[in-house]
Write a structure and sequence with these properties.
single chain, mainly alpha, two-stranded antiparallel ribbon, two-stranded antiparallel sheet, 67% helix, transmembrane
Length: 343
């Protein structure tokens, strides 16, 4: 590393360590952008709510304006007066609204990763902005709680109970991945053959990348599940805190905390509630309280079986990811340096 690179890295590290000093202003700038986005959508009649095949007209644009305006006022007050308890409560309340708005952002990310277009670009941008805002609002709410030290902790494994949660989340994906691979290999599951599932995917607008992988016997969602399991174990094992040897210039260096935590929090905030709420709906369907649509399957019973496999995987993995991310966050916090006083 050259002297210039060391200077730049040191400057960046110093600026990043001072985040409590500038995060409230960054939140205020985000709030202005978010409120402006909502206002533009409201005035142009652009719907930010997508359901099924039609954009549903709603007042969500004005709701975005309200959330952005509230965040703007609160963050400006933090810049001016500091962070009394009342402002902290308001920050967490607006953060909760942003998290609700950002729900299902992961699904849009997955469809874009697989080369498919999102259902509504306005809705996707709204979720992405809300996710950024949730992070900034949460950071602002904690900006008066500076870390207790600057010493870097040694890579460590999560406690045994957290690793058991990781095993549970991993095993929950096994039936889901097996089901998907059976279809991708041309087999039959829940009364539906692999060819029928491939035709249904093509009919539903799957991308060329998705269809190509399916035709090669590789289900994209099963591959994403494998990446999710890799992320989960990186959160609970020491190797998730240091770049491995094959990363060449980065090998041996510490992994920035945000690198695994960002996708972990995004996945946990999407999959855990999606799986839990979906599991509740399937429970009602199993009890005969509601009727589940059979969709691309031959019967409602087949659709119910596939639904249970998916929702259990999402719920259990999402909860395990939440536990793993919290453990990683605790284990990678800066530690207070130990000072030895002279005898």
């Amino acid at each position: 590393m050259t002297g210039v690179e060391r200077t730049m890295e040191a400057g960046w590290s110093a600026w990043w360590r001072r985040w409590p000093c500038w995060v409230a202003r960054a939140t205020m700038l985000w709030a202005v952008l978010y409120a402006g986005f909502g206002l533009a959508c409201a005035l142009s009649g652009t719907s930010l709510l997508y359901h099924g095949g039609d954009s549903v007209a709603s007042g969500l644009g004005w709701a975005v304006v309200a959330v952005g305006a509230l965040a703007m006022v609160v963050s400006a007050a933090v810049v001016q007066y500091g962070l009394p308890p009342a402002l902290r409560v308001l920050l967490w309340a607006v953060c909760g609204l942003a998290v609700i708005t950002a729900f299902s952002l992961l699904m849009d990310v997955i469809t874009l990763t697989l080369g498919q277009g999102v259902d509504s670009w306005a809705s996707a941008v709204n979720k992405a902005l809300a996710a950024v805002g949730a992070v900034l609002l949460a950071a602002t709410a904690r900006s008066d709680r500076r870390p207790g030290g600057t010493a870097v902790r040694e890579p460590s494994a999560a406690p045994r109970l957290v690793q058991r949660a990781a095993w549970t989340g991993t095993l929950a994906f096994v039936p889901y991945a097996a089901m998907k691979l059976v279809w991708a290999s041309g087999g039959t599951f829940a009364g539906t053959t692999g060819q029928e599932m491939l035709a249904a995917s093509e009919r539903n607008g799957a991308s060329g990348i998705f269809l190509a992988l399916e035709s090669w016997g590789l289900d994209p969602t099963a591959l994403l599940a494998a990446l999710g399991v890799f992320l989960l174990w990186g959160l609970v094992r020491p190797w998730g805190q240091v770049f491995p040897r094959w990363t060449l210039f980065l090998r041996g260096r510490r992994v920035p905390r945000w690198l695994p935590l960002a996708p972990a929090l995004l996945g946990a905030a999407t999959l855990a509630p999606y799986g839990v709420v979906g599991g509740g709906y399937l429970t009602l369907a199993t009890a005969g309280v509601v009727t589940i649509r059979r969709g691309d399957f031959d019967s409602s019973g087949d659709a119910l079986l596939v639904g249970w496999i998916g929702m259990v995987a999402f719920a259990v993995y999402g909860i395990a990811l939440t536990i793993g991310a919290y453990s990683y966050w605790l284990r990678t916090r800066p530690a207070c340096p130990v000072s030895v006083s002279p005898e």
